[in-house]
Amino acid sequence: MTSRLATSKGTSGLRQRAETRLRMRPSRSARGKILTDKQRMLHELQVHEIELELQNEELEIAKADVEAALEKYTELYEYAPAGYYTLAADGTIQLMNLTGASMVGIERSHLVGRRFGLLVSPAHRSAFNSFLGKTFALRAKRSAEFELSSQGPRPKTVRIEAQQLPNGLACQAVVVDISERKRAEDTQGRLEAVTAANTKLKREIARRKKVEAALKKSEVSIRRLLAESRKMQQQLRDMSRRILLVQEEQRKEISRELHDQIAQTLVGINIHMTAFANAEPIRRLIEKAVRTVHQFARDLRPAMLDELGLITALISYIRRFPKPKGLRIHFRAFAKEVALGNDERTVLYRVAQEALVNVARHAQATEVAITVRKVPEGVCLEIADNGRSFDLARMSRANGGKHLGLVGMRERLEMIGGSLWIQTTDRAGTTVRATVPLGKYRRRGWQN
After folding, report:
1. pLDDT of 301-318, one tens digit each?
2. Among 78, 98, 129, where does a domain finish?
């Protein structure tokens, strides 16, 4: 302050001011009288006294200015919105303002001599120590964000800007609480994420609506195709049903024609041949032809199936069935002939024929049990053997060439609303079970 006064006013200025003030005082000597040396010395002393008074007044003014500036500086430093810390190279707190102490929630007297790194949360402590070391090593202003140890329900996030002091022994750290800003940024980030998610969701909803519309359109097309497919399947079933019906009728007519016309004609020829001599060989040939015709007629369709019923026809078929060596067939049926329709009798008879042919050709069985019994929903025919098993899936796909095959069995049964069940194992052989409905259980017939 002294140098500032000397610079602004100067010694000569002070002298002139003192001379002016002295002249303004009343003089004790006579006007115009020549001053003596003592008087001049007294004059000088008076001027110097006035100079000292002026200097004292200026010093008082300067002191007041300094005290006012100090008070203003103290107020600005202590109550600044940011915390000010003076830290040693190892992070020891040498000085801080009230805002800095309030920011960490610890009294200022308890902070001096304590390391600032202990105020940082453990997760950020290593990063802070590295930050402080680089501040002293690089001698450049540095800034970074850290999280303080929690002093309340929410941890504080601060931004620290530090720079080494000219003495090189300490650094000035400005600590700004950015918790609210970080929370606002986090909130904004979450809001942006939610907005982006909503936008994505809206796009996904729009995309799914398009897919749903396409699926509905495809579903309509698929339903139309399925309806057409079912219609075609029904047409194929009806056609197959009509073919089988015609086939059975043709077999029936051919069998009747062979039995009633050709066989009787051959018998008549045989009777007339008795009148001729040496006709025995011809008679034997005719008798053989009659037996062949009868056998052929029975194979096409036995007359007793229509006249005497299923059980009698099966018994007759089993008796004349060409059994492989060692194969025994056991037949068991309920006492009375059930009132089966023509469709049901024909289907069960054909299933029994096909099953016995398969056993004789492929099963290598020694025992076959054929059972016809009543069940609650109709009549059940079961053929069980003790032979070897077979690949059911492969056999189901096979047509069998000269016989119906499993596919034929199932198709015939389905035409009259029946069902086919087959089980084949290595140890227990094969069981074929065909069930045809009666009464209220009957759903359809060949004549549909």
Report:
1. 777 788 888 898 899 889
2. 78
Domain final residue pick, 53, 78, 103: 78
Sign, CA torsion 285/288/290/292 = negative
What is the rounded CA–CA span in Å between residue 18 and residue 52? 9
Q: How far is residue 106 from each of residues 164, 189, 191, 323, measured CA to CA in Å?
A: 25, 33, 35, 110
In a domain, 126, yes or no: yes
Cα 43 to Cα 59: distance, rounded to the nearest angstrom: 24
Domain harbouring 93, CATH code = 3.30.450.20
Whole-angstrom distance, CA of residue 395 vs CA of residue 391: 6
Number of domains within the chain: 4
Residue 392 has pLDDT above 60, yes or no: yes
Residue 4 near residue 36 (C-beta atoms within 8 A): no
Residues 138 and 9 in one domain: no
Please state, as a whole number, how many other Cβ atoms lie within 10 Å of the Cβ of residue 198.
10
pTM of the model: 0.43
Burial per residue of 115-152, b for 16 or more beta-carbon CB atoms within 10 angstroms, e otherwise: ebbebbeeebbeebbebbeebbeeeeebebebbbbeee
Alpha-carbon gap, residue 149 to 155, rounded angstroms: 6
Domain span at residue 345 reads: 304-441
Stronger pLDDT, 394 or 345, i.e. the higher one: 345
Phi-psi map region of 45: left, alpha, beta (phi>0 left; psi -120 to 50 alpha): alpha
379 bridge partner residues: 374, 436
Whether 403 and 317 have beta carbons less than 8 Å apart is answered as: no
Q: Is residue 448 part of a domain?
A: no
